[in-house]
Amino acid sequence: MRVDTLMDGADLMSEDREKQVIEQYRRGEKMMILIFAQWCVNNELNAVELYEHAYPQQKGNKELLEAMELTVPKKESEEIANDTLLEALSVYGNEDLAFVVTQYM
């Protein structure tokens, strides 16, 4: 087997791994958005208004609107601890949103 063939295989594996990491990040980010949306429902807050207060330049966030469709009524939801929400927001770099959220805790 030639060295360049091995390198091509390694490059493909590297690309596949990179795609997996990106996809895993996106799934985690969607979960963070859903946690935020459900926390807002549970606390009788408008998730879109809070999000737009933190990020006024990002009106009509598609991912948030999709997550809102997946939320359940407060009485059907498990409690989401404030610390859980803040940690999830922090992991994905949403410190501005975390700051806004803390004003409602």
UniProtKB/TrEMBL annotation:
It comes from the Bacteria. This is Uncharacterized protein.
